[in-house]
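S.,

Sequence below, as promised.
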Amino acid sequence: MNLTAVDPYRYLQQAESSSLKRLSDRLTRPREAAGELSAEQEKLLQACRDFEALFIKQMLDAMRNTVEKTGLVDGGMAEEIFEDMLYDEYAKKMARTAGFGLAETLYRELSPRLAQQESEAAWQAAAAYADALG
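The prediction came back faster than expected:
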């Protein structure tokens, strides 16, 4: 009987790269994948994703502040800077793969307003053009 050890880290990497990626693509980028978003909608979607990462970063910082440092192995200022940068990357990764849904919710809420602003701007441009002609 051939038994092989299970590497949980490798398993998580594989799961993240396959099923979570597919799920994330289906949930977060249905129109983006089809190339149907305008430049303004792309900017809005990216801003929503950045906001989600910022929110997650704040949550992780609050969680990190609850852990008491023993002083036994204190890295000083360099450790604090490294930890802060590490948690920035954790937040970005979690925003991309964890499926919190905050970015999608914000985008769904704000995109109708963006479309309304775009149509109003188009009407104003048409009215200005009509006034210039006549």
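Helices lie at 8-28, 30-34, 39-65, 76-97, 102-133.

Coffee later?
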